[in-house]
Amino acid sequence: MSYLLFIKRLDDLELTKERKAQQLNRPVSEPIFSVEQQCCCWSNFKNLTDSED
After folding, report:
1. What pLDDT is stored for residue 50 in this prediction?
2. Full-prediction pTM beyond 0.85?
3. Contact between residue 4 and residue 10 where contact means Cβ atoms under 8 Å apart
């Protein structure tokens, strides 16, 4: 359970960084999740329907 809360918090921080970068028309500085790790974001994880994914 704590792991799920942790990745939720990381995703919230990442979304905040993305919104700020978008407002300033800049790329996200020091992203939390790399391109390979995007599947671990809470926003992607919560929409999984297949338990094997």
Report:
1. 74
2. no
3. no
End-to-end CA distance of the chain: 18
Asked if residue 53 is part of any domain, the answer here is no
Note down the domain range covering 28: 2-45
pLDDT the model gives residue 51 = 65
- Identify which of 18, 49, 50 has the alpha carbon closest to the alpha carbon of residue 10: 18
- 50 lies in a domain? no
Say what the pLDDT of residue 20 is.
93
Domain-embedded: residue 28:
yes
Alpha helices per DSSP H over 1-53: 2-23, 42-45
Rounded distance, CA 12 to CA 6, Å? 10
Is 34 inside any structural domain?
Answer: yes
